[in-house]
Design brief:
The chain has 497 residues and is an alpha/beta fold. The chain contains 15 helices and 24 strands. The protein has an eight-stranded mixed β-sheet with strand order 1-8-7-6-3-2-9-20. A four-stranded parallel β-sheet has the order 13-12-11-17. The chain has a three-stranded antiparallel β-sheet with strand order 14-15-16, with no helix packed on it. Helix 1 runs antiparallel to helix 2 and helix 3 packs parallel to helix 13. The chain is globular, with a radius of gyration of 25 Å.
């Protein structure tokens, strides 16, 4: 294959020389060589950094967005692609509509209903010559040279080897979100399943259905059946409560009909150290507790000290056997956010000022769950909520558009730009479903403020209507509506695929 590698090198040099006269900034030759050389059987040299160079005078400035969560996707949707080229770097090529993710675990919705491709959110990424999406992780940042270092995501060591490349930016937006917190408890990473991504929901669904089928096998002891069919949820926030409600609905409406032999063994336990739904009104919390208990969910107040392969140990020494363990105790900074040398806000997030800029560095912004106001701003760190991230993304898109219109889009060219209106967050309220066509709607702006709060069937209708309208594309709205109707008429899909 040496002749083939020589041909690649000649082609790369020819491509490099021809592209120098082009007005658009293109991917440099070493990046192409790294891509093509994976077809050779000979050992290749260690991958060198290459990729997208700095933009030239006369070209559109480049906005590099790290992450495809609520904040990053709302930002990309709002950017004016006549002013900017958009480059997105993320290990996933879609956005997850997280409020409906729990419904996919039990077959109420299909997985594609909550996943929105990035190319649909910002079509320029698929069409414009200077805009790209790279399925990669960002593992380094050089703010002095306006560079981010990335490494591609692969499906494992048996497939393509990951290679590294660099992207020069004019404006950088860090929207990497957060990762689930384990509080350093031993065994959580190995034995629990989180509920943040589509593949988490897929894993939960497969595990749940596998346990149901295994428990029906002849010879399985009563004790083992009870363990396999004991679903434990740790964390009494909205995600944990909604998943518990969906699971109890699934058990009562579908398991009792399809798995009649083991219907008396399956049950759900929700473990919370304090009160469930602590951010909601007291009356709504009592209502949620009543409804969950009525649905068969056992509420336990305790702190998990250790997680083993078949049991969890609480702070009072109680051992709780489980077949499925879902961990939903909040989020914290990712390893990249912890490692990057940028100012930090309380809680370890990347610190930003009133305009979502990262101080002390040029042209770097941060939004979403990975960012927080610095103490010097006098503002509290905002909660890790979808509506916060979405609002920040919308604000920053408008701000960057104004900077671009003023001629400050290129690197280090906005020093004279006068920032006017700072970001102000106004809480619109909280919602959560508790199963059995019941939900909670809390429209207070804060826990201490007064406002409208509802519970029951009307709240459930508001919950569904609100989230149906918030689903990004009409395509996915149609999917969600059809899935809801299909579940209502025919029941949930219990296929283990």
């Amino acid at each position: 294959m040496s002749w083939f590698r020589s041909l690649i090198q000649v082609s790369a040099r020819a491509s490099s020389s021809s592209s120098s006269s082009s007005a658009k900034s293109r991917i440099t030759a070493p990046f192409s060589y790294s891509l093509l050389s994976c077809f050779t059987t000979e050992a290749r040299p260690q991958a060198l950094y290459s990729g997208l160079g700095a933009t030239k005078p006369g070209e559109k400035p480049r906005v590099v967005v790290l992450g495809t969560g609520w904040a990053g996707c709302r930002l990309m949707k709002g950017l004016d692609t006549k002013l900017y080229d958009v480059v997105c770097v993320s290990p996933r090529n879609h956005m997850v509509f997280t409020p409906l993710l729990a419904s996919t675990c039990v077959g109420t919705l299909e997985f594609r209903s909550v996943a929105e491709p990035i190319g649909r959110i910002q079509p320029a990424i698929s069409r414009e010559p200077g805009s790209y999406f790279f399925l990669s992780n960002c593992n380094g940042l050089d703010t002095d040279k306006h560079l981010v270092q990335c490494e591609t995501v692969t499906d494992g060591a048996d497939n393509l080897e990951p290679w590294k490349f660099e992207i020069a930016y004019d404006k950088l937006v860090i929207a990497l979100g957060a990762q689930p917190t384990t509080f350093g408890i031993r065994g959580v990473e190995e034995h629990a399943i989180f509920l943040r991504e589509v593949y988490h929901a897929q894993e939960i669904r497969r595990k749940l259905l596998l346990n149901l089928m295994l428990s029906d096998v002849p010879g399985v002891s009563e004790e083992e059946k009870s363990r396999l069919l004991h679903c434990v949820v740790v964390g009494g926030g909205p995600t944990g409560v909604e998943f518990s409600g969906e699971l109890s609905d699934f058990i009562q409406k579908d398991v009792h009909q399809t798995y009649a032999h083991v219907k008396d063994y399956i049950h759900v336990t929700l473990i919370e150290a304090n009160e469930i739904l602590s951010s909601f009104d007291d009356r709504l919390r009592r209502y949620a507790t009543k409804q969950l208990t009525k649905s068969g969910v056992r509420l336990v107040r305790g702190i998990v000290k250790d997680v083993k392969d078949k049991t969890i140990v609480l702070n009072d020494g109680t051992e709780v056997p489980y077949g499925l363990l879902v961990w939903s105790t909040g989020v914290g900074p990712s390893s990249f956010v912890n490692s990057v040398q940028l100012p930090k806000a309380p809680g370890g997030r990347i610190g930003v000022d009133e305009w979502l800029r990262v101080p002390s560095v040029q042209d770097v912004f941060s939004i979403g769950d990975c960012s927080g106001f610095l103490e010097s701003t006098g503002k509290p760190v905002l909660p890790a909520l979808a509506q916060v991230a979405e609002r920040e993304g919308k604000y920053l898109a408008n701000l960057l558009n104004k900077i671009g219109e003023a001629g400050g889009g290129h690197a280090s060219s906005a020093k004279e730009y006068v920032y006017k209106e700072p970001f102000v967050y106004k809480h619109l309220g909280s919602m959560a479903t508790v199963g059995r066509y019941k939900a909670l709607v809390d429209l207070r702006q804060s826990k201490e403020a007064k406002g409208l709060s509802l519970a029951g069937f009307v709240s459930w209708f508001i919950w569904r209507s609100a989230y149906l309208t918030r689903v990004i594309s009409w395509r996915n709205r149609f999917y969600v509506a059809i899935n809801w109707l299909t579940t209502l008429v025919f029941g949930r899909d219990i296929s283990r695929i």
